[in-house]
Specification:
Length: 84
């Protein structure tokens, strides 16, 4: 397993190394979740592949946005707030 060292910025931001972004298909605006597992932080990107894997478990109610759409819309709102 390869290890990468990063630094947390004064804004709490972390840069994901380019090699990992490429390997996992991560682009600007890719939604992701952070979870704590056994004292470790785990980043799970919500890529199209991941969305397809979980799509069957997250079917929205009629007329409601999918979980991915809701997450994506929330990320867009966050990005707009950050850029103000």
């Amino acid at each position: 397993m390869q290890s990468y060292r990063t630094v947390i910025s004064s804004k709490g931001q972390v840069v994901i190394p380019a090699e990992l972004r490429e390997q996992f298909g991560l682009d600007q605006g890719t939604p992701a979740t952070w979870t704590e597992e056994e004292g470790r932080l785990v980043l799970t990107p919500m890529t199209e592949r991941r969305i397809r894997e979980i799509r069957g478990f997250l079917k929205p109610a009629p007329g409601e946005p999918s979980a991915f759409e809701a997450l994506f819309e929330e990320r867009e709102r966050e990005r707009k707030r950050e850029n103000q």
